Amino acid sequence: MNPAANNNAYLYAAYVVVWVIHCAYAFSLMSRGRRMKREARELNIATNASLRR
Amino acid sequence: MKILFKVCVVLTALLLGYGFCQAMYIAPTEATMGDVQRIFYYHLPSAWVAFLLFFVNFLASVWYLIRRNVASDAVALASAEVGVSFCTIVLITGPIWARPIWGIWWTWDARLTSTLVLWLIYVSYLVLRHYASGGQVPVLAAALGVFGFVDVPIVYMAIRWFRTQHPQPVIGGGQGSGLHPAMWHAVLWNLAAFAMLALMFVWVRYKQAIVEHQLEDAHAHASLYETEGAQ
User: Fold this and answer.
1) pTM
2) What ipTM describes this predicted complex?
3) Contact B39/A10, CB-based, under 8 Å?
4) Nearest to B149 by CA among B63, B47, B80
5) Mapping DSSP to helix (H, G, I), strand (E, B) and coil, where does residue B227 land?
6) Using one digit for the tens of pLDDT, what is the confidence trace for B88-140?
7) How far from B161 is each of B55, B65, B174, CA to CA, in Å?
8) Which among B8, B191, B211 is the top mutation candidate for probing chain A, defined by the most A β-carbons within 10 Å of its own β-carbon?
9) How far apart are the first and last CA of chain B?
């Protein structure tokens, strides 16, 4: 196998890793945001119910 | 604010795309290493952005210890979290680049070891923030952020102070150091792109940290109402 072509596999692997990490972090931020929205909505309902009592 | 955020997202995407083109197609191929050297255009900017974020964490931690305000604590948390993600990239792309060039994935030289220690310090910062409970957690985390930052100049200077397997610096590395101007373009475009991406991540995480704080307060109030209601 051509050594240069073999080395290119390392280059592509590094770039893929970078994008996977960035995408995974962006996804974790989005899912945390959704969870917090849901929690805020539930808490608001719970607080309002407590206040009505 | 939402429009500004969307504009920044588009700008970041454009910068990342252009940075990618610069790194993969426009920058010249390095004579001895070949195309695998293009890892450098993601490796170096990621390291600089991580250092910058740890510096922001340091400033925010100092400010929190002085003023004890929620905003500086949120900035510290956001910058540490995003900094760890960029430092992780440095620690993964480095060995991937080292393997075909040095013939080894890792060596315990001063630069690599101090970078690993830096990553461990900020991971422990995040573990502390995530798993510890009580009012003193932000204070402990701020103290860790202040003292943990001491490792950043050590990482930066390691290749100047010690003989290392890691290459000598491209800035201020003495005679024979430096980069081809076209290579600099690729470095700077990717630095701008990654700095912008980091800013977006910190922005979102900062807002989430503020909301988390408000939710904790709301939880406390809700449980207080529950207790009062039961009595």
Assistant:
1) 0.90
2) 0.89
3) yes
4) B80
5) helix
6) 999 999 999 999 999 999 999 999 999 999 999 999 999 999 998 888 999 99
7) 21, 32, 14
8) B211
9) 44
